[in-house]
UniProtKB/TrEMBL annotation:
Residue ranges of every copy of the Myb-like domain listed in the record: 1-50
Organism: Zostera marina
GO molecular function: DNA binding
Subcellular localization: Nucleus
Xref: Gene3D superfamilies: Homeodomain-like (1.10.10.60)
Gene Ontology, cellular component aspect: nucleus
Name listed for the protein in its UniProt record: Myb domain protein 68
Length: 85
């Protein structure tokens, strides 16, 4: 298993793999690619950095207001907060 930061080439291999095979079957990524990363690393890299629907950037003022409102009520329970409107 490789440790350390991902390279652009590794990112591209993972993106190509997901385009061809879809998301979800992370158990066979290593068998079907030259990636030396474990399946958990591949899944986390996809979900947290490479997924095309991933939103990066600032919150809108309205979203920030909602987050602060819920945080003042329930604290750092982020998963629970996502179910609130």
């Amino acid at each position: 298993m490789k440790k350390g930061p991902w390279t652009a080439a590794e990112d591209n291999m993972l993106i190509d793999y997901v385009k061809m095979n879809g998301e979800g079957n992370w158990n066979v990524v290593q068998k079907n690619t030259d990636l030396a990363q474990c399946r958990k690393s591949c899944r986390l890299r996809w979900v947290n950095h490479l997924h095309p629907n991933l939103k990066k950037g600032s919150f809108t003022p309205e979203k920030e207001r909602i987050i602060l409102k819920h945080h003042s009520k329930i604290g750092n329970k982020w998963a629970r907060m996502t179910t609130k409107s």
